[in-house]
Structures are given as C-alpha cells and as structure tokens.
Amino acid sequence: MTVNTVLIITDNVADAKLLEETLATARDGPFITDWVRHLSDAVTRLERCSVDIILADLFLPDSHGLETFDALFKLVPPIPILVLCDEENEHVAIEAVQRGAQGFLSKGHFQTSLVPQALRNIIQRKKVEEALFVERERSRVTLESIGDGVLSTDVAGNVTYMNAVAERMTGWARDEAQSRPIAEVLHLIDGDTRQLQRNPVEVVIAHGKPLTLHANSVLLRRDGYESSIEDSVAPIFDRNGRITGAVVTFHDVSEAKIMALKMAHLAQHDYLTGLPNRLLFNDRLSQAIAYAKRHATQLAVLFLDLDNFKHINDSLGHAVGDMLLESVASRLVSQVRHSDTVSRFGGDEFVVLVLEDALAEHAAITVEKILHAFAAPHRLADHELHITTSIGISVFPGDGDDPDALVKNADAAMYHAKKKGKNNYQFFNSAMNALAVERQATEVELRRAIAGDELLVYYQPKVDLVSGMVTGAEALVRWVHPEKGMIFPQSFIPIAEDSGLIIAIGKIVLRQACRHAKAWRDQGMQSFTIAINVSALEFRDSRFIENLRNVLDETGLEARFLQLELTESVLMRNVESSSAVLHKLKQIGVQLAIDDFGTGYSSLSYLSQFPIDVLKIDQSFVQRISANNGNGIIVNAVIGMGTNLGQKIVAEGVETPAQLSFLHAHHCTEGQGYLFSAAVPADDFTRLLGQGAIGVSVPRQ
Ligand code: C2E
Ligand code: CA
Ligand code: CA
User: Residue 283, CB half-sphere, CA atoms under 13 Å: how many?
Assistant: First the structure.
C-alpha cells in the first residue's frame, strides 16, 4: 500500500497538531505529514519535493485569503488542495473551490475518521484525472501530427472531432463541423458511377463492425475539389459494449492512384506502339470468350506476322524497323472496329481480336481489308517501304475455347499462310492441327533414322546437253522408313530444318556423297562433280566449314569436284555474312551453285558480287517451256545473264524432248531431269555411268 504524504500549511498550532494526530492514526494506514507555518516555507518545501495533497489555511502570517490559494495552485496545479477554514471565512474557501481547490475542511471536523478517507479519495481521483489528461494530450498530439485525416462522431453520426488534416481535406473547420451530420462534412461519391455513397459511418454504427472503405471513394471537398481516398471506419464502444460513435481515418491516394494507373498501363502495353501487349490481349480475349459463351456469339483471332520484316530490319536498321512497326500498328488499328483489340505480341507479330463475327466470312472480310490496307507503301523518313503480312485465323468456338488454344491455332494457321506464299490468309482447321501433331511424331522418328541407317543418298545425273555425257550428280537424300517405305525430302527436310536435325543429316549426306564421288572419279569419270544441297542452318553453322574440310580429307575428294547448292533466300538473309562465308568456301576450292534460281529475291546486284560458279534454273521455269510459245523467255534471259557473268547454267527438271531442244538451242550447257534419269541409288548410278552417254539425242530444230 502506498503511503500518502500530506503538507499541512497553517499558523494555528492546535489545528496542525490535531490534523497530524488524526492522519497518523488513520485506520487504513497512516499518512506522512509535514507542517509549515508560512506560505514561503510551503513554497520552498514544494519546490524541493512533491506531496500527494495539501491542506492549507489561507490566512497565514505572510499571505492572506485567495492570494494564498492562487500562489499554491499556480505552483503545483496537479496536487489537490484542500482549504482549512472556519465558519466566518467559509465563503473564501468556496471561492477557492471555484478556482480549482478540491474542497474545504471546516474546523471542528478535523478529528473525524472521515478525514483520512476523504483525503484518500481526493488523491485517488486527482491521480486518475491527471492520467486521463496526459492520455488525452497524447492522443491529441498524435492525431494532429499524423498524415491521415481523422474524424469522429457520436452515435447519431454527428461530428465530434476532426484533426487538422481532416479539416484541410474536407474544407470544414473543426468548430463549424462540430455536431453536423458526418455525410455533410465527409462528402463521398463513387469514383466510377459518381453516385453519392452511403456514408460508411452510418453502416458501421448500424452493424458495430469496422469497415474498410470502398476501393473507389472520391471525397468532395467543400469547394468541389476531388481527391481519391482510402479509408477505414471503426466503431467506439463504451464499457458496457454499447456503441457511442465511430472514428473515420482516411488519406489521399490520388497520386498513388495515378502512379498505379501508369504502372498498370506500362505492364499491359507495348512500349513501341502503345498497343495492348500479350498480357492485356489475353485478358480481353478471356472476357470476350466468356461473353460469347453467354450470348452464343462468335469471335475471331487473327495472328499476323509481317513478311520479310527481318530483311528490312537487317538492311535498313532498327530505327527504320521500329518506325515501320509503328506505322503498321496504326494502319491495323484503322482497319478494325473500335470494339476490336489490336495487340503486338513482340517482334513483327500482331494479334487482333475481332468481336461478334457471326460468320467466318466476316473475319475474312476484315482480313481482306487489312491485306488491302497493307498494299499501300509506308513513307518513313526518306524511305518508301512495302511490306505484306501473312495472317492466320482461328474462330471461337470451332477452333478452341480458351485464349491459349485460339492464339496457338491462329499462329498455326499463319504458319500455313506463310507456306502458301505469304501475303495471304488461312483459316485454322483441325486438319492443320493434325498436321502439327504429325510433325512432332516425324521429328521423333527422324532422330531414330539419323542414329540408325535409314537415310540413303540417291544420285541424279547431270548431263552435258551437247554430248549427252554425265558431268556429275546431285545428291538427294531419301529416308527408307522400316514401315512406311521410301519418304521423299519434302516430307521431312522442313521438319529437319525447324528442329536443327538438318545439321546431322547434312553431315551424313556429305560423307556418303563424297565417298561415292571419289569412287566414280577413280573409275575414270575425270570431269565428275558431285552437288550437295546446303540449307540455311548448315550454311550459318560455324562448324560447317570445318566439317567440310574433314570430310574432303577423309574421303580424298578434291574440293573442286564438290559443288554446294544454296538458294537465293539463304544467301540474301544476311548479305554481308553470306559473302564472307562464300569467300571462305571459295578459298577451300569448292564450287558454288545457286539452286532454284529465279524463285527468290533475284537481287542481281548482290548476286553478281558473290563468287558463284553455277546457276540452276528452277524447274518451274523449265517446265513452262513448250515448243510453240514464248514461255521460254525467262529461261532465255537467265541463260544470257549467267553466260555474261561467266557462270555455267544448269536447267533443272527437264522432262520433255521439247524442253531439251529449247535449252540446247539457247546454249544452256547442262541439264538435269526425268528425261535423263530420276535420282537413283549409288549402285544403279554406277551402272548408269557404265553405259556412257545417257543417250538422249538432242533433237535438231
Ligand atoms: P532440289 O534441290 O531442287 O532438288 C531437285 C528435286 O527435283 C529433287 O526432288 C528431284 O528428285 C526432283 N526432280 C529431278 N528431276 C525432276 C524432273 O524432271 N521433274 C520433276 N518434277 N522433278 C524432278 P527431291 O529429291 O524430292 O528433293 C526435293 C528437295 O529436297 C530438293 O530440291 C532439295 O531442296 C531438298 N533436298 C534433297 N536432298 C537434300 C539434302 O541432302 N540436304 C538438303 N539440305 N536438302 C535436300
Ligand atoms: Ca538442289
Ligand atoms: Ca532445285
């Protein structure tokens, strides 16, 4: 139990003694008493050490009446003061009580046992008051220093308090707002609908549970200024658990909101074109699918890939490439409806969501509009660029019912459009899907074929068109599948190229072909050359040349009897590096041929700079030759051009005597085709060589 200390201030010795005695013998434990006779002594005493209560006679030798009280009260406001008085100056004591004294004790009552009890109560109450005051001060300072607006109400929802931030944000001064309904002071609307929001304080008071506000609350300041806020409301309970009001805390999130919007935009859009990116596209597509399911409508996904964009990018630089992409983006946007979504998936791939196309034809119409719009050139800086696009289309619900499937299938259809010669569109259908599955299976089987010995090299003779003698052969790979039998290159070379297996296949063919060529040369075929097809991946492979040297060493074939056939598209893909590789190959001593000549870019200015020995006229041109029409014109032009550049010309796909005679008449030196022989196994080829000239007599014209 704490012992209370009492300071008695009186000049009356008897009174002092009496009080001291009463307090020393108190029933619930004694008080420690200290007695002084002058105000000045009391002041000194109190400055030295505090006490729990003061019993003061206001009439002292050095101070009189209220003056005494005021001096003490000023000195130690938190210490309760009890005035000692007699009847005639009781009115002074009452005045003192009005000024802050805790009460008065009249002479004649000093002795009663109630005095210690009363003192204890006063001390206790004063301590609680003091603690409360400190607590309230702490809350006040806290509330005024925090950055959030704080506002409290009574149970009727009328404002009882608001801090400075709340004043600033609502535009209401505390005094004005006092006792007004909260909805008037904290004026909230929904940021989307702009409807008045039900004031959260009413809700909290009604339900007695805390509430975090509406994600999209906008606070209207008294002058109309708007700020987005985030807030929470909590009920206040009394000790009996009854709600006595509520506290709202809120803060301005306008800036955070702008920042969040900015970030969200960045995360969902393509930096270059500003179009939605894949993420946002997928989101929109999911929503569109959900809608289409509910309303039994359709939608289409268009997958666009620009044709030969890489070529422009490589040759004119990325800055021009970027400008072109931006130009393409805005052209696309201009061709679709507002409700459709044009997105960029990266690189030169764009994906468009076309909504509510009840019929597949509608998608086709949009696509045709797009292809048409692409026909106009893009004028960028000082370039005039032409670019086309290949488009694949998948339709919901027929071609898939989730975003992934629809995009994947549109992509597959686009791939198909590329195969069909670019600048066109293709619909996805299940047959195309089956094709993809089959490709997968073929790849697996092809790996096995390479590891085993299912790959054979066939040879097709090349013939001197004047003498009819075999000048060499083109090595053409065949896959002898244990179950499916003979498989031709068209069915597996593209897969081998896509999967990289072409490198291994190329090595097998090169080795076999060089070995056979060496044998045939050793048998007396002095002018015999062997031609090998080299695909893009091999040509770009850093180990290609090294392997070539090794195989030549190993088989003993002289480099000049080996001819490498490359297509124009392989060479034109990167003109500079192609040129470097070609010159390295020339250093080794091999011959270089351009295969399928006439079908590719035919950028003659480049081709004339490459060290090319042979042009192989594509069979499509040769086959258009017939005796009596002018279709031979291209063949004729190629022959003339090649001859001028000092290149040998080989005509491919010679099937008829008429073609042969045309070629002969136009001074084409060599030919290859079914008219002479198809590609045959090595043994058959050996026999064929034994026959000498493969006797197609050139008809005289
Ligand atoms: P290519 O290089 O243009 O080969 C000529 C193709 O035309 C061969 O088909 C050949 O059998 C065929 N052909 C020959 N004479 C005639 C004819 O008179 N009329 C017709 N219509 N066709 C004729 P094949 O063997 O099916 O090869 C197709 C393509 O596969 C080749 O076209 C070549 O690009 C590629 N290829 C073949 N073997 C290899 C190889 O070992 N490596 C690489 N990378 N590609 C190869
Ligand atoms: Ca070829
Ligand atoms: Ca060819």
Answer: 8
